[in-house]
Amino acid sequence: MTVEKDTKQAKAKKLADPKTCTIDLATQEMINVAHKLDIETVFDRAVTMKPCNIGTQGTCCKNCGMGPCRLPLPKGGLDGEDERKGLCGATPNTIAARNFIRMIAGGAAAHSDHGRSVAEVFLSAARKETDAYKIKDTRKLVEVAKHLGIDTVVEVNGETLDRDLDEIAVEVGEKAMNEWGKADGELLFAKRAPEERYKIWKKMGVVPRNIDREIVEIMHRTHIGVDQDYKNLMKQGTRAAIADGWGGSMLATELQDILFGTPYPVASEANLGVMKEDMVNIVIHGHEPVLSEMIVAVAQMKEMDDYAKSKGAKGIQLSGICCSANEVLQRHGVPLCGTFLQQELAIITGACDAMVVDIQCIFQNLANVAKCFHTKLITTHPIAKMEQNNVLHIEFDEHHALEDAKRIVKLAIDNYKNRGAEVMIPKQKSPMIAGFGVESIKYHLGGTFRGSYSTLNDNIINGRIRGIGGVVGCNNARTKHNQGHVEIVKELIKNDVIVLTTGCNAIACAMEGLLTPESAAVFCGPGLAEVCETVGIPPVLHMGSCVDNSRILLAATEVVKAGGLGTDISDLPAAGSAPEWMSEKAISIGHYFVASGVYTVFGVTLPVTGAPVFQKYLFEEFEKMYGGMWDLEIDPIKHAHKMIAHIDKKRKALGIDRARDRILVDMSDRRDIGAA
Ligand code: XCC
Ligand code: SF4
């Protein structure tokens, strides 16, 4: 009897199969360790909990207390008139569109509120209310000031002089803050887009007024009984998404660059193997670099290194997860510990002395995992706490930034001696070059003196580079970890499409070794390989964190400006992708790419399939209005080829499809010569 009961219980506990849930060996190894220690991770939960079929289709409405109203597609598909409706009469289109733009609101709010926090720190640095932060990149300060309509020169006695930088900085901070809630006018950065793009937004009536308002209006419009026309709902979704990409996110990126430095190429490493057994491991996780910048500064102090040594460690090893990691990687070369789905595993190594988290993408289950180890899990942001009582909250305040960071680093050092006997750090890690941006691409591809995008354009026109792929976004436990990311990117570069990457896609590519110049010879088509080898860049350029997708928008704008490839982003041979997306931020990003004229393909799932008319609106009709549209493709190879087909369509429209043929002949000619 008891034996039977036991087996029943054992059977009831379904565990993830490491080999089927990730392509990464370190992750597989750590899932096995977790199983051995009887610690549950997201991979196991994905096996035991199935997603809701109705929510997956985007047709569950819980916007009022008469619901949730659930409108899945009928089992045999739609036959005749679609008569599904909620209690209030809301159609599947209305419900799916409302849900979709509420996701945009969530994502835009997250990016933009992050931007606002940075703007606040920026302003107190500009006003010299804190000595922890100082303006680092004055060149960029002046450039951004111009985009905000701030005078950068003054007339003195008929002479034009440069204006005082401190003065400019204060004005930049104030003007930036104003972008969130000004009473009239429109988003200032909207005019940074190519003129043709701005005209389209004007014509469609979607130029954002201010960042917060567009998000609030989504919440209003999607309240029961307000906007019940999916087209009109999407108009607002579009306006809010633009307010994110060209507003909140772009401000976050620009102000961070001015404050912490604009990234330039830097060497580092990625994967769990960057943690060190004999050092104090501090893992930074989240999105806002305001605190992590300070932790980097403190961890590099001799005083802290000495303190770590006095406690028996060889020093301090910082590493990061998610986008806080990408931020400090881009600016300081701090190694990446792993992607979104590896966060629990970093603690399960037993070597994580402190995990310091700020905002976004942080699993609440980290607290449960930390309970099984000595790890101090420290929340630092007033808007992001956890209910579990083993979580420490050390609120970070820019006015005592150094003190706060020191306290956190000391805590980690003091905790080193409390490690258990079992430390299990997988050995996998890959070298990489990160730190690309609008500016560094310019210098790398254009030469230090010429510094322009015309070399990139020339190589696109002559066909060595077939096009540009922006591949970004999260991991999603509903699909094999990193498989989509890696297969899609490899297929693109194999077909001479250069890839710009951010977020967890960048981390996945780094783990796979795709962020090295050497990978060009191994994985790229002949044209792209030649370009990469000539200028010494990887075929996959790490552009930063998720708010740094704004860098991709600006890079695309630079390509348009450099000439020869049309007059708008929608003319470019370019396509976007989020192979393993999961967050609301990804939906906002996807939509601002679409609204900026980019064909954007998502993997895994998209919550629109239950409303075919609405889906068709996003997937087809958007192209007629904005030149960009959505798509969903689960198969990675087909996904990449849909992007390539779009790139080829654009090449043809530009009349540069023939140039490509010529290059291919050149290459085979060369091979023939080599064989002879
Ligand atoms: Fe989060 Fe930015 Fe997604 Fe990764 S990619 S899971 S949002 S960390 Ni943005
Ligand atoms: Fe149902 Fe309409 Fe209420 Fe949504 S708003 S839950 S569809 S009654």
In short:
The chain has 676 residues and is an alpha/beta fold.
Question: Which key features would you list for this structure?
Answer:
51% helix; binds iron/sulfur cluster; alpha/beta; binds FE(4)-NI(1)-S(4) cluster; 6-stranded parallel β-sheet; single chain; disordered C terminus; 11% strand; 676 residues
How does this structure look, described?
The chain has 676 residues and is an alpha/beta fold. It contains 28 helices and 18 strands. The strands form five sheets. It has a six-stranded parallel beta sheet with strand order 8-7-6-9-10-11, with helices on both faces. It has a six-stranded parallel beta sheet with strand order 15-14-13-16-17-18, with helices on both faces. Strands 1-2 form a two-stranded antiparallel ribbon. Helix 8 packs antiparallel against helix 11 and helix 10 runs antiparallel to helix 11. Bound molecules: FE(4)-NI(1)-S(4) cluster and iron/sulfur cluster (SF4). Iron/sulfur cluster (SF4) binds at residues 61-64, 66-69, 86-88, 90, 95, 224.
Largest sheet: 6 strands, parallel
**Amino-to-carboxy terminus distance:** 79 Å
Report the portion of residues in β strands.
5-15%
* Category from helices, strands and their pairing: alpha/beta
In helices, the fraction of residues equals 40-55%
Integer average pLDDT: 94
Architecture blueprint of SSEs:
Elements: H1 2-12, H2 18-21, H3 25-36, H4 42-48, H5 53-56, E1 60-61, E2 69-70, H6 92-126, H7 138-147, E3 153-156, E4 159-162, H8 165-181, H9 195-204, H10 211-221, H11 230-260, E5 266-270, E6 280-286, H12 289-299, H13 302-310, E7 316-321, H14 322-332, E8 336-338, H15 343-348, E9 352-357, H16 365-371, E10 376-379, E11 392-393, H17 401-415, E12 430-434, H18 438-446, H19 454-461, E13 467-471, H20 483-494, E14 497-501, H21 503-511, H22 519-523, H23 526-535, E15 540-542, H24 549-562, E16 574-578, H25 584-595, E17 599-602, H26 612-626, E18 630-632, H27 636-654, H28 657-675
Helix pairs in contact: 6-8, 6-10, 6-11, 6-25, 6-26, 7-8, 7-11, 8-11, 10-11, 11-24, 11-25, 12-14, 12-17, 20-27
